[in-house]
Amino acid sequence: MSRDEKKLEFYGGKFMVFGPILLALVGLAYIAAKNANIPEYWVVFILPLIFMMPFVKNKREYADIIVRGFSSEVAMILVAAVMLAGISGAILTKSGLVSTLASYLIQFSFVGSKYVAATFFMTGLVALSTGTSVGTIFVVGPILYPVGYLVGANPALLIGAIVSGGAFGDNLSPVSDTTIASATTQNMDIGGVVKSRLKYSIPAAVITLLLYSFIGGKGQILPGAEEYLLTPEPVTLLFLLVPTVIIYFCFKQKHLIESLSYGIITGIIIGLFTGIILPGDIISVPEQFGAGGIILEGLENAVPTIIVILILFAHINLLSEAGGINIIMKSMSRFVVGVKSAEATIVMILVSLNVATGLNTAAIIGTGEIANNLGKEYNIDGYRRANLLDCAGTTLNYLLPYMVPVVVGSMISKIYAPFPDAVTVTPIQVVTSQFYPWIIAIILIFAIITGYGRTFISDDAKTVAAEV
Q1: Which domain holds residue 394?
Q2: Strand partners, 292
Q3: What integer is the mean pLDDT of 436-463?
Q4: CA distances from 261 to 273, 282, 339, 412 (A)
Q5: Which of 395, 401, 417, 460 could be 441's S-S partner, Cβ–Cβ 3.0 to 4.6 Å?
């Protein structure tokens, strides 16, 4: 029997497949209330997978599913990206660039809420161009977060602005995997989908920008930060080439791993050329059997997030291979009685799959066929269906503490803290401090209830006939 023909069975019935993720959610609520750090997330994710073992009939297959989740291609790409981003951040920390930029910004009074709003705007532009939210967070986080911290921006809102900017780009970019998935599953052209999505994403972005402009912080230098605001060293500005190189190659549609690698090479060359980084700073053996250097430091900083990613993908694969996703889709598709309920069902199925899998692109692909069938049955235009899919994928994908963009945002605040005693932004704080996903969720609900932006297939047919 092939892997696809096997079906994992549980003592207690098929709904036991949701046991691990439900237990994890309970654990997440507990540690969130305690403001726990990332390592506690290892515990609440791995224990449910262990405790589920006695309830599985085919224990070998259960173990194989977990291992396949650990080793999935998407998980490995994220692990590699986290490692390289950690190294890149360690190079930038060593350079002194952050302190120099912070000092200049203070001189020009570009602090507090002004900086937070600008952070959302700049991150959104990068994400719009690259089409990847997590990749964008890796690129801009090492610079924008520590600098903003030093110029008095609220740390949680600062991370929220970075993740929100990534969400905006993921939602609207024509090269985003979610845009491509939402358009192709509904058999629509990407250009038309992006154009029709402007009525949802641009108002959400404008409202988000205004919110950050007013509540991003007063610009007071936080206690303990003064000693890190040293005299500006103009030569360190050369290290701005590191994120510039990464962004450039992302724009050129190069692989994120390739882009990050070029950034690291650029940083090392600049460091050695200026003397800011010495050969012994890159790789060092301080004592026998000892190890040190900025490369190792970057890798060590990445370890906590890597472990979370691996365990999370084990949960995702369990739901996928053990039938959890099919249960969700079948249970929700039965409630359709009209256009509004059809649209609401499309959104609810996608959000449920997103919550279950942790991946909005996978949820869009999984919901695509149902959206296509329901849309045609109720005459809902393809652009509208694509927008429902993509906008729904921009909500809880950024609003649950175990989602990858949220975990990565929290990781940024720890790895790239400007000084040792700087506060760490928890995943719960990331969720409550980013506005774009909340606003797009409100707009989506409004659009379903009122019909805002809704078009029908027959409307398009009439338009085409009139033009002819």
Answers
A1: 10-461
A2: 284
A3: 84
A4: 18, 15, 49, 18
A5: 395
Q: Is residue 119 assigned to a domain?
A: yes
How far is residue 36's CA from residue 317's CA, in Å, rounded to a whole number? 26
Question: Can you read off the two tokens belonging to residue 217?
Answer: 């912080």
Residue 42, pLDDT score:
84
Q: Which residues contact 126 (CB under 8 A, 6 or more apart)?
A: 136, 139, 140, 165, 169, 247, 250
Token code pair at residue 190: 């990407």
* Cα–Cα distance for residue pair 82/93, rounded to 1 Å: 16
Only one residue has tokens 């175990």, namely 402
Contact 345, 388 (CB under 8 A): no
CA trace torsion 109, 110, 116, 117 (10° rounding): 120
- Number of domains, the chain: 1
Task: Specify the DSSP element, H or E, that contains 404.
Answer: helix 404-415
Q: How confident is the model over 280-289, as a mean pLDDT?
A: 78
Q: Give φ, ψ of 456 to 5 degrees.
A: -115, 155
High-pLDDT (> 70) share of the chain, % = 88
- Specify the higher pLDDT residue, 89 or 123: 123
Nearest to 356 by CA among 407, 405, 403: 403
Q: Is residue 467 part of a domain?
A: no
Alpha-carbon distances of 224 from 146, 154, 426, rounded to whole Å: 13, 15, 20
What pTM did the predictor assign? 0.73
Instruction: Please indicate, yes or no, if residue 468 is contained in any of the structural domains.
Output: no
CB atoms within 10 A of CB 267: 29
Question: Is the model's pLDDT at 6 over the cut of 60?
Answer: no
What digits encode the pLDDT tens for the residues 171-194? 988 868 788 888 888 888 888 888
Whether 54 is in a domain gets the answer yes
From the list 404, 436, 410, the residue with the least C-alpha distance to 169 is 436
Terminal Cα distance for the chain, rounded: 56
Going from the C-alpha of 215 to that of each of 15, 410, 439, the distances in angstroms are: 44, 20, 16
- How many Cβ atoms are within 10 Å of 432's Cβ, its own excluded? 14
DSSP string, 60-84: HHHHHHHHHHHT-HHHHHHHHHHHH
Which structure tokens are listed for 6? 């096997």
Percentage with pLDDT > 90 across the chain: 25
pLDDT exceeds cutoff 70 at 279:
yes
Q: How far apart are CA 134 and CA 152, in angstroms?
A: 25
| 3-state SS record for 268-298 | HHHHHHHCCCCHHHHCECCCCCCCECHHHHH
Tell me the pLDDT band of 197, cut-offs 50, 70 and 90.
Answer: very high
